[in-house]
Amino acid sequence: MESAQRTCPVCTGKKVKFLQTMDFARESHCILPESYRIVECNNCGFVYDDLDADEGLFEQYYRSCTKYTSSGTGGAGGLTMIDRIRYHKLLKWLSPFLNAELIIADVGCGKGGLLRFLRENGFQNLTGIEPSPGCVEVIRHQLKMDAVCSDIKSLNSTNQFELVIVANVLEHVFNLREAVKQLSKIITPNGMIAVEVPDASRYALFPHAPYYFFDMEHINHFDLNSMRNLWSSMGFEVLAEEAETCFPVEGMENPICRLLVQKKKRQKNDGTFGIPKSNTAIPVSQYIEWSQKKAQTLPDAPDTQQKFFLWGCGAYAKWFLRNKLSARPAGIVEVDTKKVGQNVDGCPIISPEMLMTENSEKTIVMISSVLYEQQIRKQLEKLKWKGQILSACRPREEQEY
Ligand SMILES: [Zn+2]
Questions:
Q1: Which CATH number does the domain 300-398 belong to among 1.10.3720.10, 3.40.50.2300, 3.40.50.720, 3.30.1540.10?
Q2: pLDDT tens-digit profile of 255-303?
Q3: DSSP 3-state of 170
Q4: Where are the chain's structural domains?
Q5: Does the domain formed by 49-290 have CATH 3.20.20.30?
Q6: Residue 397 burial by Cβ neighbours in a 10 Å radius (0-12, 13-18, 19+)
Q7: Contact indicator for 147, 109 with CB cutoff of 8 Å
Q8: How many angstroms does the Cα of residue 371 sit away from the middle of ligand 1?
Q9: What pTM does this model have?
Q10: For residue 51, how far is its CA from the centre of ligand 1 (angstroms)?
């Protein structure tokens, strides 16, 4: 048993069991810690990232984060076919509790994809709440809907909602108990909160790539048990729950879980003590074991004579660069123009156009994105890339060298 730097965000416990160290290549201008431990709370069993950071750092990061306003990022609030499938499932699950007049807020709504979907399905009292001013602008002026520019910490009780949806947000939140307190401020006395998060108890059933579910942004690894612990210890009761899956991109299935809660009618004591322990660490450890084994099969840098580039500059690329490659790529290709010109562990981030000045049969591109491998392959084909293309996410034996 060890002491954590970050107290357990579910029960505030300080004693933890170590599960895994994560180490990522450092991106210039990125302020998130690139090295931290994944731990299990000794008191309540919650699995979370033990970081040398505070709430303020994460708030600063998300305020300056442009990723979720771009159209290409999954979960950015767009309304593609696969977004519709996810929203449809969410709506179906919530349907016993819904009526068209319900006053609904979507917290962390991005560009308002879910709000649009709800409007199409007859709901009229809809508000988006989102910290990114760019997204709020889109919702107000393009979608002509209500939007409040706020992060969870700054929520105030001016607006009261009968249903607050918080989808794919809480896994990013540093101080969960504070977030729950803030969210309870904006619901009516009978108001409900619907939460959706990745389901850590099933990471191992969707093994896309080693350590894929551990990135710098997802700092809480929930399952239904730890979600229940969080909400019930903060005075809520569970109305409904389900374990489901979603598709962040076509063909990539990820585990999620959902909880619908409402304030307990008679407030009992805060249930922090005697909290039932969740056993998420067991399936998470299985996923870590799988990752360790799989990581050994991944390709390394090509022979010294060959120039190579990575394509994809997300968490997986940073993990791969720091933990697997024995030589540095000549550059890392990234479509987000805001990143071009910066570097990761000293490797320059370049645009696809810059890569094309190196288009030759001798040059290799290693695709270092788990989610967008197929899209990147298509783009390389379109650009008439002459060199070899490898995947940094799949075993060496499965690929031609
Ligand atoms: Zn705990």
A1: 3.40.50.720
A2: 999 999 999 886 655 555 567 888 999 999 999 999 999 999 999 988 7
A3: helix
A4: 49-290, 300-398
A5: no
A6: exposed
A7: yes
A8: 31
A9: 0.92
A10: 15
